[in-house]
Design brief:
By secondary structure, this protein is an alpha+beta fold. It has eleven helices and ten strands. The strands form four sheets. A four-stranded antiparallel sheet has the order 1-2-7-4, with helices on both faces. The protein has a two-stranded parallel sheet with strand order 3-10. Strands 5-6 form a two-stranded antiparallel ribbon. The model has no long low-confidence stretch (mean pLDDT 96).
Length: 308
Amino acid sequence: VTADDVKARALALGFASCGIAPAVAPPHGDAYRRWLDRGFHASMDYLKRHAPLKQHPERLLSGARSVIAVTLNYNRAPLARPKIARYALGRDYHKVMRSKLNKLVRTLSALQPDAQFRVCVDSAPILDREFAWLAGLGWYGKNTCLIDSKRGSWFFIGLVISTLDLQSDQPAIGSCGSCTACIKACPTGAIVQLDGRWQVDSRKCISYWTIEHRGSIEIESHGWVFGCDVCQEVCPFNQPRSSQPLRAAYTLEPDLLQQRAWPESLEEITEGEWDRLTQGSAVRRAGFQGLRRNALLAKDGRKIPETS
Ligand code: B12
Ligand code: SF4
Ligand code: SF4
């Protein structure tokens, strides 16, 4: 199996791009440690627990030689209400990404039965952006999202660690230049300088509070009910441009385009309605109480204690 075989098969499965990174210690692993040491992970303790495993892909798959990185476009028209980050409007991307990566692994295993693979989708103890950057799929923007100069940043990252000895790509090159649009637009000032680089302080980030945090919310959520897209909405790399036809293009993935009957107001939703509405959706992560809490706060427009 060659790197070109892998890429051709990945693109045939509907991934927007695919690249190969070497299975090495992540070059910016120290930056991750410093981010944790500052407490920028808020209550996401699993990020700290995962830190030792994140030091090398070998820790997740013995004999790892390469990391296959893919991106999946999730861009679609946003809803005016409820304000749910566009990545979460359709079917849960973990399921979509995992099933495609499992298919990729099945084809590769058939070609090389002695090879081993480990599929990583978001929650695995590996730095997704770091390996996608190494694989040439995008560079770090000031909002910390990985940006593909041709496509923007509305994409998920998926990784497959493998024992295959594949030809690696070069890390992606690109930069925001003097732009600071996301830093100025972030409603809560969550994009801050740490060691001379822009980083997200989760303790101030609406996405963190509305998706990951349990208990009362201690910031203003500026109308967001689940996640937040502001720092990507304002990014020039996500604006349509005739010379860049792939930028801001909507996904073609039916599962991610799925229309769910999100009611405009989620404040009075019952547990039964929540259960039906969020089956197979990433929004389920907030839980019933969490989603109601978010909706109440979004409607009220100010800091309020949790109502449960
Ligand atoms: C924890 C987490 C969050 C946290 C913290 C976000 C953050 N910026 O760290 C919260 C809950 C806030 C969050 C929010 C979102 N997330 Co999130 N999240 C993660 C997760 C699980 C870990 C990220 C992490 O390790 N952060 C730690 C910090 C230190 O990482 P970092 O900011 O990228 O820092 C790196 C760079 O600064 C670089 N670096 C440091 N110094 C230097 C120097 C040089 C020269 C260079 C080149 C690089 C460099 O190295 C650092 C370490 O890798 C990943 C999945 C995964 N397993 O990796 C998804 C992930 C990053 N999230 C994702 C998404 C889609 C989102 C949201 C858009 C969702 C939403 N709409 O609400 C927002 C975006 C907010 C934002 N601006 O980042 C995608 C990003 C895809 C992309 N194109 O970048 C990921 C990769 C999930 C996936 N598999 O697709 N997320
Ligand atoms: S997701 Fe929202 S709150 Fe978080 S850094 Fe981006 S703009 Fe700021
Ligand atoms: S808005 Fe500007 S500064 Fe922020 S990530 Fe995009 S190009 Fe970079």
